[in-house]
Amino acid sequence: MSPAHDHGKEATPGTAHEPATDGDHPHFDMHLGLYLGVGGFLLVATVITVWLSYVDFDKMFGGHGWNIIIAMIVASVKVGFVAAIFMHLKGEKKLIWQFLYFTMFFVAGLFLLTLLNYVDPIFGTTHAQH
Amino acid sequence: MQIPHEVTARPDTGLYNAKLGIWLFLASEVMLFGGLFSAYIFLRMGAEDGYWPRGLLNVPVGAANTAILIASSVTVVLAWASLKMRKFSQYKLWMGISILCGALFLIVKLAYEWPQKFDHFGAFIKKDALEHYEQYLGNHHLKEKKLPPRVEISGHLHEVEIAADPAEKEKLEVFLKRHDLEAKPDEHDAKLQVVKGKHLTPGVVEDLKRVPGVKLIAFEVALDPINADPTNPESDKPHFWYKGATEKLGKIEVKDVESWSSFAPKHSTYFAVYFTITGLHGLHVLAGVLIMLYLWLPIEGGANMFKRNPEHLANRVEVVGLFWHFVDLVWIFVFPIFYLL
User: Fold this and answer.
1) pLDDT for A127
2) I need a labelling partner for B289 at 20 to 30 A (CA). Which of A125, B97, B218, B263 fits?
3) Distance (Å) from the C-alpha of residue A11 to the closest C-alpha of chain B?
4) B84 to chain A: which residues are within 8 Å by CB?
5) What local confidence, expressed as pLDDT, does residue B234 receive?
6) Are B5 and B17 in contact (CB under 8 A)?
7) What is the tally of structural domains in chain A?
8) Does an H or E element contain A5, and which?
9) CA atoms within 13 A on the CB side of A38
10) ipTM of the complex
11) Which backbone phi and psi does B57 adopt, to 5 degrees?
């Protein structure tokens, strides 16, 4: 079968014993160190996350919720490394990034909905005490 | 029939089929977990002062499970790199470790962490009765320090005081025998009985409540450290290192209790959303373990593909790896929001 979009450039599937990447052994060897390094960083960051939860940042900076903000920043950095290196989003194809832009937009919308805890846009009331 | 672009990339997108598919799937998963996380935010922000518990989960266990998932994320990416370098025995080793890590995560959750919650007892005290329980709650002390009030007394059930209708005596006796419990007359009030036994869990007491003629009067609880010594400054911001219940006993009258249960989903919105999110995450871990096992076993479509078409196997491992990293990524948020904050 030959779908219209098949440009005919593909090697016959099922016989690809020696794909183009096969000659790039040093390329993957080089990455092994990176993967272990990121794994080590993530473990250290987990210890830091636990340690930070014992520090009272509200007392330090004044106000509320600093511990939550700081813990989420640390978690986001960890997640950034997992996505960029382990999921090799760094240098990933344009199409995948396009999917993810959409997802980020809609998931941001989901989280912005939680602002309704503070403001009721319909009746124009605010709940600053919550 | 041969499907095109299973192994090699489509020239226009630069992606093979499964990679396109897994990313679309992961995008929908982000929305699924995103919805649950925003539900968590709503519930937490809407909780009254004192009604969003802290320090009920076991931090060392949660941290260890985090480390297990991170380690397995590393090994699964090493398994993929091994296949790319056509080192089959290395692939089997790294994939095997990934599977074991995933299984260990589930064992810790299902055999240790969750059952412990189902044996733990917690009772939320009615607002107008909080003052009676000041010795266990320490709210005067908390008010002085401008901290949110304490409204729950928790620990392990030691005994339950009941009033039983003598006419229904037999049904109670059958129930007690079935659950290996014993009932003795109360020393202070001859009309009441005290039920005791090794297997007196909150779940059993819920069944006891349904036995005809039985009315619960009071709970006697081996108190958690926070209720045993509520004015200790160490308990101001609850401890996350679980120490277990103390020897100190506290008595709670059922008439003063707003709601009581084990640390099950019905305990509070906190545990409801905790079990929902960690349960769904656990199902993802289970799915990942099963798929990785399939690719590890010497079967057609699994590790046997290596001889026929190693690149195709590498692609499959890459795809399950992407899923597995996503599962790890979700846990990186789950751990702090439930265990630490």
Assistant:
1) 61
2) B263
3) 7
4) 21, 24, 28
5) 82
6) yes
7) 2
8) none
9) 24
10) 0.90
11) -105, 160
Asked if A83 and B325 come within 8 Å (Cβ–Cβ), the reply is yes
Mutation target for A interface from B2, B37, B78, B329: give the one with most A CBs within 10 A. B329
| Residue A77 and residue A40 share a domain | yes
Does residue A83 sit in the same domain as residue A98? no
In the CATH scheme, what is the code of domain B17-120+270-340?
Answer: 1.20.120.80
Q: What is the pLDDT of residues B13-37, one digit of tens each?
A: 999 999 999 999 999 999 999 999 9
Res A92 pLDDT > 50: yes
Same domain for A112 and A65: no
Asked if residue A14 has pLDDT above 70, the reply is no
3-state secondary structure of B221: strand
According to the model, what pLDDT value does residue B282 have?
A: 98
Chain A residues in contact with B45 (beta carbon < 8 A): 114, 117, 130
Residue of A nearest to B25 (CA): A99
Burial class (CB in 10 A: 0-12, 13-18, 19+), A96: buried
B306 closest CA partner among B75, B17, B74, B90: B90
* CB within 8 Å of chain B, chain A residues 59-118: 67-68, 71-72, 74-75, 78-79, 82-83, 86-87, 93, 95-96, 99-100, 102-103, 106-107, 110-111, 113-114, 117
Of A32, A79, A100, the CB nearest to B78: A32
CB neighbours of residue A113 within 10 Å: 13
Instruction: Give the closest of B23, B45, B325 to A82, CB-based.
Output: B325
Percent of chain B with pLDDT over 70: 99
By 3-state DSSP, what share of chain A in percent is helix, strand and coil, each rounded to 5?
65, 5, 35
Q: Which helix (H) or strand (E) holds B214?
A: strand B214-223
Q: Give me the pLDDT at residue B291, please.
A: 98
Confidence of residue A20 (pLDDT cuts 50, 70, 90): very low
Question: Under 8 Å CB-to-CB from A60, ≥6 apart: which residues?
Answer: A66
Q: Say if residue A66 is in the same domain as residue A82.
A: yes
